[in-house]
């Protein structure tokens, strides 16, 4: 099919993949661990909740690991700073390519409210998913994929199998 | 110098965080240049319109995977340190359940966490909404932790790799994955010709 306007002007996907792989490789060489993203949002969720109800966060079975006594602030953390870097790097890439535009990414006939409601619902479901999987496309699929970790490959296969099936049911959002 | 540097030498917290910032910068830059700041470029794979997600992901995984093995061959990377201390642990069933939820979130929400960040700095309102939803998801997970906390850490298989499961070497396993990727690239092209949703 004809390449749509929003898909133009990017790197060749194989070259982009090799570049991404080299970033990942350097990360392993330097740190022994890979890339990540969702962990920064788990910490953000904990910090926001802590602002409202510190006692809940400090006693919650999951959130309390971010607020151990004597530990630094949850934002003084590798993954949080790395995601700050993603913001910066993404912004520089967008600006230098003159691609910044306030808009909504959706199928040509889908309504804006349908798309935004589903973005919210998808965010909730995906966010919960990252916690059970202990990572996302970066922290599990890329990082564990490149080191051939069993759980990461299981995660990646299940993610794509599920999404290919579920795509049929939300086709109006993307068509 | 043999890597992983931070684990074999004692890097200060400040050094680690500076590395995190620089690495993150390049990560975000490449994600944007790959086209991952737009939910349509990310979800088109599921409708066989544009399989760029598969091409980028598989090329990236193969590059880093082969690169790590090559570095360990020439003595620049100690693979045993990775296997013993930092390989991601497998919690099989929780990760499968997480994968189902994440896959749903991906196609319904249109992003994954890292790409939503790039979408946000591209001016995409849907990625902002997705990120807010994700924070809410984290709260729901924490609220329900008393219910599913024990499941979350179950089916612990430790640090285990595919080549150990299949009883082969990491080199042969990596070669098999590269072949699988090449086959997937060919199939991706056929899938794009098929694009069943747009007929």
Automatic annotation (TrEMBL), chain A:
Q: Which UniProt keywords apply?
A: Cell inner membrane, Cell membrane, Membrane, Transmembrane, Transmembrane helix, Transport
Q: Where in the cell is it found?
A: Cell inner membrane
Q: Provide the transmembrane region boundaries.
A: 12-31, 78-100, 112-134, 146-170
Kindly indicate whether the keyword Nucleus belongs to this entry: no
Q: How does it sit in the membrane?
A: Multi-pass membrane protein
Q: Which InterPro entries match?
A: Sulf_transp_TsuA/YedE
Q: Which domain of life is it from?
A: Bacteria
GO cellular component terms, A-Z: plasma membrane
The record's similarity note reads:
Belongs to the TsuA/YedE (TC 9.B.102) family.
* PANTHER family tied to this protein: INNER MEMBRANE PROTEIN YEDE, SULPHUR TRANSPORT DOMAIN-CONTAINING PROTEIN
> What is this protein's record name?
Uncharacterized protein
